[in-house]
Design goal:
The chain is α+β, with helices and mostly antiparallel strands and 425 residues long. 35% of the residues lie in helices and 24% in strands. The chain is built from twelve helices and 17 strands. It has a seven-stranded antiparallel sheet. A three-stranded antiparallel sheet has the order 8-10-11. Helix 7 packs parallel to helix 9. The longest helix is centred in the C-terminal third of the chain and has 26 residues. The radius of gyration is 26 Å and the shape is globular. The two termini are 37 Å apart. The N terminus is likely disordered.
Length: 425
């Protein structure tokens, strides 16, 4: 199952939750005003909502620690978190495991609450404010998965749904122009209502991009927009004008490429209209200090700053070890970077569909100059500035045609320049 399908399966939203006043949703254990309690089941201490006891008692502690043994399905996996889909007593749930077996993660929890509890509290906040978001069921700390320490959050699941990015592209592909414009206008109104309610309730999703908002179909042509990944959120405080612009600029990063100016303006007008509707209903609500024209100008500048920060962050990620890139150190003083895997495979790139290891890359380029001598590669170009070879790599018994380029120095100045970072390669 791919990430998109995972996202489309983890939604839970409050369809008829009434608007409410701001309440303290951060109090810990014991029964409180939000209907939460702390119970112990099979040796595990849980913080849960009222009515969740039967769900927790239906699964033993051993299965919570080993979801694979329970026959549950892993739908997302990376170094910090795993997400599993579980069917308990015939009802689907999603389990988020937050790993904290690294010393820096344990150190970080001395200065900020764990992500598991943050997402739990964010879910309670959205539930009470009537903001559509996954409904939390329970969480527990100090769970062990093999040798790894982790926390676990259980949320309800509503199926099906899909990321906003996929839904919008489907709308854009509608060949009926009148139908397409009508549906886009309806959804701009729906999205404006969701974000305006969140902002006036004092909720700012700090990672509000098109994949962190999902669309759940109701009765055609009616839909519901839902926030996910609530651990990246600030709540319970009024949003300043600058925070509003910053938040909208995050969402604009994707839509500036896949929507027209008219469609984005339609959303902004709906957002401003719904801000006025929600202003008297929340204690953290406040009027925006800008007109629509002023908001557009501020949003344009903020979107450019956000895009520059985003690409700079991705450039830095490409220069360090991680899930997608690996550093290489080879004999003879050679150093470099290589791709380990691609987050999104594409049909026109065979390499994007493959996984590579650091050991495999070392074997291919030990020594690197072997590709420029003998018959290991065919010559494409040889000049005073570069040597280019065409070669065939064979990862996992698959043929991968590549071009290998080596910059050359014509004089001592260029030789010196090639020794200094960043190299031409």
């Amino acid at each position: 199952m791919n990430t998109a399908h995972f996202a489309s399966s983890t939604l839970s939203a409050t369809a008829t939750a009434p608007p409410c006043r701001s309440v303290d949703l951060t109090r810990p254990a014991g029964a409180d005003a939000t209907g939460c309690q702390r119970i112990t089941v099979d040796g595990l201490t849980w913080t849960c909502r009222e009515g969740a006891e039967d769900v927790l008692r239906a699964v033993s502690a051993a299965l919570w620690s080993d979801p694979q043994a329970a026959g549950w399905q892993r739908v997302k996996d990376h170094a910090r978190r795993e997400v599993w889909r579980a069917v308990i007593s015939g009802v689907p749930y999603y389990l988020k495991y937050y790993f904290r077996d690294r010393w820096w993660r344990r150190l970080g929890q001395l200065f900020r609450p764990p992500a598991c509890r943050t997402e739990w509290e964010g879910g309670l906040f959205t539930l009470r404010a009537g903001i559509a978001a996954p409904q939390p069921v329970a969480y527990t700390r100090n769970l062990r998965r093999g040798r790894r320490h982790c926390d676990l959050l259980v949320t309800e699941a509503i199926e099906p749904a899909q990321p906003l990015s996929e839904f919008w592209l489907q709308l854009a592909a509608d060949q009926d122009g009148a139908s397409r414009r009508r549906q886009q206008a309806q959804f701009a109104e729906l999205l404006g209502e969701l974000i305006a309610r969140a902002h006036q309730a004092g909720f700012e999703h700090l990672d509000m991009h098109a994949a962190n908002i999902l669309v759940q179909p109701l009765t055609p042509p009616h839909y519901r927009a839902v926030f996910i990944d609530l651990q990246s959120a600030r709540r319970g405080v009024p949003l300043s004008d600058q925070a509003v612009v910053r938040n909208l600029a995050q969402l604009n990063q994707w839509f500036r490429r896949f929507s027209s100016v008219a469609e984005r303006l339609r959303f902004l007008r709906a957002y401003l209209r719904w801000r006025g509707e929600f202003e008297p209903r929340f204690v953290h609500a406040r009027p925006l200090g800008w007109s629509c024209r002023e908001l557009v100008g501020a949003l344009q500048a903020a979107a450019q700053r956000h895009a520059e920060r985003l690409w700079a962050q991705r450039d830095r990620r490409a220069a360090r070890n991680g899930r997608y890139f690996v550093r290489l150190t080879l004999p003879g003083g050679w150093r470099g970077m290589a791709v380990a895997t691609c987050k999104h495979a594409t049909d026109d790139s065979r390499a994007s569909q493959m996984d590579f290891t650091r050991q495999w890359w070392r074997q291919q380029f030990r020594p690197p100059l072997r590709w420029f001598t003998g018959t290991a590669a065919a010559a494409c170009k040889t000049s005073h500035s570069a040597a280019v070879r065409r070669a065939l790599l064979e990862p996992d018994n698959a043929n991968l045609p590549v071009i290998i380029k080596r910059p050359l120095a014509r004089n001592w100045r260029r030789r010196l320049a090639l020794l200094l970072p960043s190299s031409r390669s």
